[in-house]
Every structure is written in C-alpha cells, then in structure tokens.
C-alpha cells in the first residue's frame, strides 16, 4: 500500500489543474493516467481538430480569392499528409507534459484506476491510499442503442483516419459535427448531419445558429433536424442509415457514420460503489464545491462533472478550484456565467453570456442590437461570407449580458466582451474605448 495526500484519476486538463495548488502547498500527489498524459484536448480534441480547421480556413480563403481579383487553380488537398501534419503536431505532447509533471513533483502512474475503498484506489497490483481522491476521468461518446450503432466511428477516428471518405453522416448536430463537417465539406466530402431535436447547436443563440446553418448549406452540407435514426446496415463497403424525418422514412448511404450525439462522464470503470461515491447512471452527485455528496474525500472536475460545460478551459478551471479546496478547505465554487466559447466552423460561432431568450426570461429590461455586418467596410474588405452579431445590454446597468458573433474574427473578439462582462466594464465604456483602425475590434463600438 502506498500513501499520498492526493491521488488524481486522469491526467487531462482537469487533473493537471489540480496539481497546481496541491503541489504549491507541498502535498504529495500521484496522478494515474490510463492512456496519454494531456487527455482529450491536446491529443484527440481541441488541438488536432484546430489543425484541420486551419486547413479549412485556407481552403475558404482560396475559394474567396477571386473577390480580391486573384485567380488560383482549383486547390488539391493531400488529406493523408494533412492528417500526418496534425498528428506530428501533437505527438510529443504527452512526453512534454510528463516533463512538466516531473518538474512539479507529481508521481505519474500509468494504468487504469478503480476505487477499492472510500480513500483508496487500485491500479494493477498497486493500492494507493489518499486523504483526497480526485475524479478527473473526462468523457466519452454517448452510446446509441439502435441496431447497427456499433458500425459508427467517433471523432477520434476522424482525427486519425488518413483516408478521405466521399460521404459522411454525422449523427447529432452539435459542436463536433459542425466543426468536423465544415472541414470535410471544404475538403470535398458530401456531409449530412442528422439532428434529433428541432435546433442544431443547442445552447447557442438560435439566430446565430441560423447564420452558420446558412453558411454550412452554402458549402454543400445537408442539415436535417427532427431526424430520428432507426438503424445502420452494412451494404458492401458502405453503410446505409435508415432514419425518420417529415413523417416518412429515408435512407442515406455513406462511407462513415460518426457518432456526434454528445459525450457523457467517463466513470463506468471506476467502481464508484466501492468508493462510496453516490451517482445516478454514472452522474456523480456533487455539492457546490465539486465534492461528492456522499464521500467528501472525493472531488470531481472537468468533463467527469456531468452538468457543467465540457470545455477545456473549464476543465482546467474546475481542476484548479478542486486543488485550492483540497488545500484550503471547501471555500471555492465555480462560476460559469461568463465563459467565452466558440464553435470552430469557418467562420466561427462565438458566444459569451446569455442568449436573447435567457436574458428575456430573467425579466430584465434589455436592449438587443442585431447587426448583419456584411455591408460594413471591414467585412467587405475581407469579402466575408457571414459577418453577424447580436449584443444584449441591460438597460439599467448598461452591462453586457450576452454577445454572439458569427464571422468577423468572432472567436477573438468575444474575449473583449467576456473581459468587459467579468470586470463590469459598461457598454458605454466599451464603445468609448480607443481601438486601432481599421480592425474588426474597432467595429465593437458600432455593434451595441
Ligand atoms: C473532438 C473534440 C474537440 C474538442 N474541441 C474543443 C475545443 O476546441 N475547445 C474546448 O474548450 N474544448 C474542446 N473539446 C472538449 C475538451 O477536449 C474537454 O472538455 C477536455 O479535454 C476535458 O478535460 P478533462 O481533463 O476533464 O478530461 P480528459 O482530457 O478526457 O482527461 C481524462 C483522462 O482520464 C483518463 N482516464 C479515464 N479513466 C481513467 C481511469 N479509470 N484511470 C486512469 N485514468 C483514466 C483518460 O485516459 C484521460 O486522459 C473537444 C472535445 C473533443 C472530443
Ligand atoms: N469548440 C469547442 O469548444 C468544442 C469542440 C468540440 C467538442 N466540444 C465539447 O464536446 C462536447 C461533445 O460534443 P458533441 O458535438 O458530441 O455534443 P453536443 O452536446 O454539442 O451535441 C450533441 C447533439 O446530438 C444530438 N443527439 C443526441 N442523440 C441523438 C440521436 N440519437 N440522433 C440524432 N441526434 C442526437 C443532441 O440533440 C445534440 O444536438 C460538447 O458538449 C462540447 O462542449 C467543444
């Protein structure tokens, strides 16, 4: 039996976040990682995905070159070489992070951990006892249960498959389907997204979603809502998806069908019962301080938290909060109200704060300004296909309550709005600010 102050299960953003305060306080810390240090974001998520998105940007710019009076030949994309570039970019990340953990004095143990008691886990033959155990085991794709569901692939496969398919169906119209769908569509793949609900990209402002829907259709993507997949069959080398939509049944054939129907907390193999960690179907019951309600020695952070946004900066943020709570006692609670996030389509859909519907629900008097900026000089200069914003301001407070931008470098601009929200900078002050000109940022004063 080995004794530690803290044992962290999972070496992704959340787990790494925990090590900051705990090691600064001199606690002994072990991190158990079943796969690659760094977890999803750098190895199978944000970072490799963005390499493909960057290629999508380049193809988009080439498509728009004629607007700048440039004639270019039809581009030829070497997909296998692009995947090689992407994989090479992330290959050494686990080793680099192993170096960071060693410098920080964290013992990294490779293997799969499961509870064997309230304060104990087993990894292979080893038993680790600790005053605090942190579940930072991330998420995995939600299993779907129609016949043939086992024929689906996942985002992991898209990011590593060197063969470019000709037709792909994404099941679920959320962030991953849109991001990967845009890359594929620009690479010449016929893309269909089948979404079960009436709105794609749930949680984003519906008007912003309409903007990216239009752009997605412009580049040839087929988007269906209220589409209920009934089964998938293998037909030779291809797959046939049977789904109901518009009161009738339809089929579509594709080389790949990708499960993009959301991700769930990865807690199945942890034997939570042995750790006295109460849960419902793997959703761990936690208090406001990210601690297990049934076993206060156990903390949860990152995608393993079933009801907070599954984003890489949130995983780090929650991990850091857990680390501080372990050191200082249960004092710190997460605040999710001002988190900037983007869907990295081309162009991106960027958002912070409340949607218009949520702001209106609160009963506050709000001022909503929607701008189609395509006619603005800045958007015309760059021949933007979409340049749109919706900014929501409280009438009495003059505070920004929500900002939603599609195009116009929204994935960067959104941080200016987030900063204003976080530090109480009013819309008037934001408009009065001096901005370099001509820039997209200088348009902020006209957006509100
Ligand atoms: C395709 C894709 C693209 C994404 N793009 C973005 C993006 O652009 N921006 C963004 O903010 N977020 C993005 N995300 C989400 C982001 O990657 C996650 O929110 C984040 O990585 C979660 O971090 P985590 O530490 O909670 O989990 P993870 O990074 O998944 O880490 C959990 C770790 O726990 C390990 N583990 C699991 N079970 C055990 C066990 N029993 N014992 C030991 N170790 C175990 C796993 O091997 C894994 O390494 C993306 C996700 C995906 C899938
Ligand atoms: N840019 C980013 O920040 C980024 C990028 C990728 C992933 N992520 C994170 O990863 C998480 C998972 O992404 P995701 O795209 O898988 O999930 P998601 O939650 O964004 O979308 C899942 C979609 O699938 C639909 N769905 C569920 N079951 C279905 C079914 N049987 N048939 C058809 N549709 C179905 C849901 O209604 C939903 O619209 C997200 O919550 C996100 O936070 C973030």
UniProtKB/TrEMBL annotation:
<feature type="binding site">
    <location>
        <position position="262"/>
    </location>
    <ligand>
        <name>NAD(+)</name>
    </ligand>
</feature>
<keyword id="KW-0274">FAD</keyword>
<feature type="binding site">
    <location>
        <begin position="137"/>
        <end position="139"/>
    </location>
    <ligand>
        <name>FAD</name>
    </ligand>
</feature>
<feature type="disulfide bond" description="Redox-active">
    <location>
        <begin position="41"/>
        <end position="46"/>
    </location>
</feature>
<protein>
    <submittedName>
        <fullName>Pyruvate/2-oxoglutarate dehydrogenase complex, dihydrolipoamide dehydrogenase component</fullName>
    </submittedName>
</protein>
<comment type="similarity">
    <text>Belongs to the class-I pyridine nucleotide-disulfide oxidoreductase family.</text>
</comment>
<keyword id="KW-0547">Nucleotide-binding</keyword>
<dbReference type="Pfam" id="PF02852">
    <property type="entry name" value="Pyr_redox_dim"/>
</dbReference>
<dbReference type="InterPro" id="IPR001100">
    <property type="entry name" value="Pyr_nuc-diS_OxRdtase"/>
</dbReference>
<dbReference type="InterPro" id="IPR036188">
    <property type="entry name" value="FAD/NAD-bd_sf"/>
</dbReference>
<dbReference type="InterPro" id="IPR023753">
    <property type="entry name" value="FAD/NAD-binding_dom"/>
</dbReference>
<dbReference type="GO" id="GO:0006103">
    <property type="term" value="P:2-oxoglutarate metabolic process"/>
</dbReference>
<dbReference type="GO" id="GO:0050660">
    <property type="term" value="F:flavin adenine dinucleotide binding"/>
</dbReference>
<feature type="binding site">
    <location>
        <position position="195"/>
    </location>
    <ligand>
        <name>NAD(+)</name>
    </ligand>
</feature>
<dbReference type="Pfam" id="PF07992">
    <property type="entry name" value="Pyr_redox_2"/>
</dbReference>
<feature type="domain" description="FAD/NAD(P)-binding">
    <location>
        <begin position="4"/>
        <end position="319"/>
    </location>
</feature>
<keyword id="KW-0670">Pyruvate</keyword>
<feature type="domain" description="Pyridine nucleotide-disulphide oxidoreductase dimerisation">
    <location>
        <begin position="339"/>
        <end position="447"/>
    </location>
</feature>
<dbReference type="InterPro" id="IPR004099">
    <property type="entry name" value="Pyr_nucl-diS_OxRdtase_dimer"/>
</dbReference>
<dbReference type="InterPro" id="IPR016156">
    <property type="entry name" value="FAD/NAD-linked_Rdtase_dimer_sf"/>
</dbReference>
<dbReference type="InterPro" id="IPR050151">
    <property type="entry name" value="Class-I_Pyr_Nuc-Dis_Oxidored"/>
</dbReference>
<keyword id="KW-0520">NAD</keyword>
<keyword id="KW-0285">Flavoprotein</keyword>
<feature type="binding site">
    <location>
        <position position="50"/>
    </location>
    <ligand>
        <name>FAD</name>
    </ligand>
</feature>
<feature type="binding site">
    <location>
        <begin position="172"/>
        <end position="179"/>
    </location>
    <ligand>
        <name>NAD(+)</name>
    </ligand>
</feature>
<dbReference type="GO" id="GO:0004148">
    <property type="term" value="F:dihydrolipoyl dehydrogenase (NADH) activity"/>
</dbReference>
<feature type="binding site">
    <location>
        <position position="303"/>
    </location>
    <ligand>
        <name>FAD</name>
    </ligand>
</feature>
């Amino acid at each position: 039996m080995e004794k530690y102050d803290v044992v962290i299960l999972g070496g992704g953003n959340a787990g790494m976040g925990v090590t900051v305060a705990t090691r600064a306080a001199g606690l002994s810390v072990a991190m158990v990682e079943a796969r690659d240090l760094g977890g999803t974001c750098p190895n199978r998520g944000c970072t490799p995905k963005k390499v493909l998105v960057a290629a999508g940007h380049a193809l988009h710019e080439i498509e728009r070159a004629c607007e700048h009076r440039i004639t270019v030949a039809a581009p030829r994309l070497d997909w296998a070489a692009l995947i090689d570039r992407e994989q090479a970019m992330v290959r050494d990340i686990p080793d680099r992070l192993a170096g960071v953990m060693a410098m920080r004095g964290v013992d990294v143990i490779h293997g799969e951990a499961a509870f064997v008691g309230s304060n104990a886990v087993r990894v292979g033959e080893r038993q680790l006892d600790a005053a605090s155990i942190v579940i930072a085991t991330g998420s995995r794709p939600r299993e779907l249960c129609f016949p043939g569901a086992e024929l689906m692939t996942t985002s992991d496969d898209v990011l590593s498959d060197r063969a470019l398919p000709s037709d792909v169906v994404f099941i679920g119209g959320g962030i991953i389907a849109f991001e990967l769908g845009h890359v594929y569509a620009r690479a010449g793949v016929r893309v269909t997204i089948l979404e079960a609900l009436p709105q794609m990209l749930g949680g984003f402002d519906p008007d912003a979603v309409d903007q990216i829907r239009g752009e997605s259709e412009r580049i040839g993507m087929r988007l269906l809502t209220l589409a209920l997949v009934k089964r998938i069959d293998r037909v030779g080398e291809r797959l046939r998806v049977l789904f109901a939509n518009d009161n009738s049944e339809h089929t579509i054939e594709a080389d790949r069908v990708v499960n993009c129907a959301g991700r769930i907390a990865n807690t199945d193999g942890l034997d939570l019962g042995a750790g006295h960690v109460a849960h419902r179907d793997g959703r761990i019951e936690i208090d406001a301080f990210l601690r297990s309600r049934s076993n206060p020695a156990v903390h949860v952070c990152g995608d393993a938290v079933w009801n907070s946004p599954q984003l890489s900066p949130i995983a780090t943020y929650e991990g850091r909060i857990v680390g501080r709570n372990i050191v200082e006692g249960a004092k710190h609670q997460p605040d999710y109200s001002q988190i900037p996030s983007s869907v990295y389509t081309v162009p991106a859909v960027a958002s912070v704060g409340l949607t218009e519907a949520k702001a209106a629900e609160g009963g506050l008097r709000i001022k909503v300004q929607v701008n189609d900026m395509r006619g603005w000089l800045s958007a015309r200069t760059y021949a933007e296909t979409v340049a749109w914003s919706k900014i929501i301001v409280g009438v009495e407070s003059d505070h920004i309550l929500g900002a939603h931008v599609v195009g116009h470098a929204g994935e960067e601009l959104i941080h200016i709005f987030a900063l204003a929200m976080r530090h109480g900078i009013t819309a008037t002050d934001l408009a009065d600010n001096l901005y370099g000109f001509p820039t997209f940022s200088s348009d902020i004063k006209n957006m509100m």
